[in-house]
Amino acid sequence: MASHALSGGALGASDMHGGDSGAAAAAVLVGNVGQEFVQNTLTTMDPLSAIQEIQVHGALQDPSCKPLIGLMDQLGLSRAESHRYVLQAATQQLLARISAMQPDRLLQLLEASFPYIGIADLRAVPLAVLDRLQPVPATFLKQLAGDKELFVELPAGVQRQVWELDKKLLQGHALPLVLGYTLEVATALKGLDMDESLPQELLPGLAGRPGAKTHQPGRKMLRSGSSALQRLTKMVGRSRQIYKGIVELMMLRYRDSDSLYVGMQEAALCALRSQLLMALHDLGETELCVKESCHKLAWTLDACLKDRRLDQRRLRELANILQPYEAAEARARASALHRGGTRITIRVPAKSGIDDDAESAGAPGASQAEEPNRGLGDMGMVLRDPSTFHMLLHHVIRRLEAATEQQLLPKDDQELAFVTRLLQLAVGCRGMMRDKVYRFADASHELLTVFYPTLSTIMLDVWMRREEAADLSQEEAAAAAAEEPDYADPNLEQLTVLLPKDELMRKVTQVQYRGSTCVQVYLLERLAAGDLVTAKQLLHAMARAMEKMSDKSIPEFAPFGYTLAIRMAQLLKGGVCQVKDGLWVLAVDQVLVKLVDSVTQTHEEVLRLLLAAAPKLDAMELSNYLTRTLNSSKKSRKRFKKRKLFEAIDPLEGGGGGGSGYGSAGGYTSADPDYFSSGYGSAGGFGGAMRGAAADTSADGIRATYALFAKAKTELNPSLAPKLFEYLGETAG
After folding, report:
1. Is the pLDDT of residue 425 over 90?
2. Where does the pLDDT of residue 23 fall: very low under 50, low under 70, confident under 90, or very high at 90 and above?
3. pLDDT above 80: residue 470
4. Does residue 604 sit in helix, strand or coil?
5. Dihedral (Cα; 247, 191, 263, 373), 10-degree rounding
6. 249 burial via Cβ count (<10 Å: 0-12, 13-18, 19+)
7. Distance between CA atoms of 452 and 404, rounded to whole angstroms?
8. 357, 365, 642, 679 - which has most CB atoms within 10 Å?
């Protein structure tokens, strides 16, 4: 047939000047070679001769093609259409043969076709060969790494081979996705939820009543709904080398963060460290996961979070996982004692059956050889995942309460000491990475013998007040609860001294406050017992400790501020707390107004608390609060603007977090459409997160909430609230 004959014609010239048939084949006149031939011919010959020469050397060389081309001319097809058809037919025939080719033939075809990979009409053949050939020679991979536009079109398997060869390119493509995960709505809200591991019966409800059971999305659902995380798993595939390169990137970002304190961005990197591993586990990449030293730890903790508790069986599993490091720490202690107290680095051998791949200096993960003991650093990041970290903190409180009721000293509780060591590893792993000295240290002596006994004494006071309140009438108990507590209590003074020293102490105290408040507010008998007094005492100690700390520590308090604002709105709606009473002044005036500069979500929840209180505040008081929040939040609003710019850039173009599922607050949808209807709403019914920051498309992500005040409080005007209206005017449009 004519089509078959045409598709069989050669696409090049036998010789640039018409040499005999025995001469070596000339270069194919395609691409730069063809352009140079045309240019040289036109400049060295007269126009008619040049055109004839070009037609001769550019035509199909099979003699049978000439009459067929003439036939196509008679049928009205242009030469360009005829040649395009020949190219398409030949390409399809060649592509059909590639799947059956042997590796040596594939390599020959790749060598012949690769020079033309930059031509769109010829690209399909070398791409098909690259997809079929395993492995692709490094010389080709290096050339592919240098072309950004071409790299996007490469098959996923070839992209992975390029990434395995080029660590810089891998991290350049992975970094926007890593940072994008930290900015996703679901990541932010999960990290802010310090109540995730509370028993269901203690979860707060509205108006002082026990909360209805709400469905919250599980970790596996959130993993499958995260765009950034899913794209990272596709990058990894089954390549341990790429996985190690991405993990190294996360650890470096966490280790080298400019922040002195662990804020939401740093905590989200720790969440990604565990969730990337578990996402690969979900996909059934068993071979890759079992070689990861912290896989069993991440899997066990994920199961605990699913059950919302840390039971004895899981604790034993955690102890077994960390047993090699426990033994190494014991040897280190003995050696340090022998050497007069000198600290040494733990050397923990790799588990049997795990052989690290030999990697070139430029390959991802190659630098791990410099830190053979950083398994504790990996485990520390997994433990610092906010959900895991908060669960461990709640378990500490439960152990302290049990020890108090049983009249035991905290230092004698082995379970409490072990969980404390886990928390210390989580808090201290960033310092370990910087110093390259890894220890699974004993529980802090100060925590066990000073801090925990101080909290235990406060718990004992709560227990005694509950016993005393049992003999009081409801009115007498309410009056006792309304009395201002003794802020000069020596235990509170002790806390004020201890809290600025240590993040772990601050976190335990924050959880202790909120754990108590859940019981106080939503269970009537606890209210009668006077637990609100304890909450005021601890808030007072926290506020005084914050005064002694640098403003740079504010991001660390973001989860505390977020949940405290929600809790206060619920108390206000339930009538348990009144505007301007002692609890309000401590929580709002002394703590929350400062914490609006932590993250946008915390800022919004504080504003929604003020919206709930607006009917009970006069216009001047409300204006003063808004002036303070605007003045206090300048840094966080500026950070949000920078993040919006980052999110608008496509990852493979060398920048940020483009793609569905991205975003932290303003105008970026969650990967899970059910997330905001699943127990992650805003404060006390005053607008869900989707109606607030997540729906705010302004530059700073918070303007829409501020605009509500002008509608909610009609007395507000530019003369009474100049700061508010100045801000709304500057950010309009």
Report:
1. yes
2. very low
3. no
4. helix
5. -30
6. buried
7. 10
8. 365
> Is-contact 114 619, C-beta < 8 A?
no
- 295-307 vs 312-321: helix axis angle to the nearest 10? 170
Pick from 697, 690, 657, 691: which is nearest to 674 by CA?
A: 690
* Strand extents, DSSP E, 169-304: none
CB 491 within 8 A of CB 450: no
The span from the CA of 108 to the CA of 238, in Å, is: 28
d(CA 569, CA 684): 5
Give the whole-angstrom CA distance, residue 710 versus residue 717.
8
CA 281 vs. chain centroid, Å, equals 17
Q: Determine the Cα–Cα distance for residues 617 and 636; give it in Å rounded to an integer.
A: 26
H or E stretch covering 724 = helix 722-730
Task: At 197, list the tokens.
Answer: 């591991």
Cis before residue 135, ω within 30 degrees of 0?
yes
pLDDT in tens, 89-113: 989 999 999 989 999 999 999 998 9
CA–chain centroid gap for 671, Å, is: 13
Per the listing, tokens 């794209």 go with 231
- Max intra-chain CA distance, the chain: 117
Alpha helices (H) in 184-226, listed in sequence order: 185-192, 219-225
Pick from 31, 41, 44, 34: nearest CA to 13: 34
For residues 265 and 178, the answer to whether their CB atoms sit within 8 Å is no
Distance (Å, rounded) from C-alpha 433 to C-alpha 594? 31
Q: Which of 420, 590, 601, 510 is nearest to 195 (CA)?
A: 510
Rounded to a whole number of angstroms, the distance between the first and last alpha carbons of the chain is 66
Spatial distance between the Cα atoms of 349 and 725, rounded to a whole number of angstroms: 63
* Mean pLDDT across 502-521: 45
Residue with the two structure tokens 């500069």: 597
DSSP conformation class of 666:
S
Query: Residue 19: how many CB atoms within 10 A of its CB?
Result: 12
Residue 70, judged by CB atoms within 10 A of its CB (0-12, 13-18, 19+), counts as exposed
pLDDT-wise least confident of 104-108, 462-466, 498-502, 721-725: 498-502
Find where tokens 């650890």 sit. Answer: 251
Type of residue numbered 647: E
Q: Rounded to two decimals, what is the model's pTM?
A: 0.79
* DSSP codes joined into one string, 396-461: HHHHHHHHHHTT--GGG-HHHHHHHHHHHHHHHHHHHHHHT----PPPPHHIIIIIHHHHHHHHHH
3-state secondary structure of 690: coil
The dihedral region occupied by 654, where left means phi > 0, alpha psi between -120 and 50, and beta the remainder, is left
Which residue, chain included where needed, has tokens 């909610």?
712
pLDDT at position 229, please? Answer: 97
Residues 6+ apart with CB under 8 A from 626: 610, 706, 709, 721, 723, 724
Residue with tokens 């609003």: 637
CA-to-CA distance for 466 and 416, rounded, in angstroms? 25
CA 161 vs CA 124, 131, 288: distances in Å: 19, 11, 17
CB of 218 within 8 A of CB of 207? no
C-alpha separations of 541 from 165, 495, 509, 537 in Å: 54, 6, 9, 6
Contact yes or no for 530/536 (Cβ under 8 A): no
3-state secondary structure of 265: helix
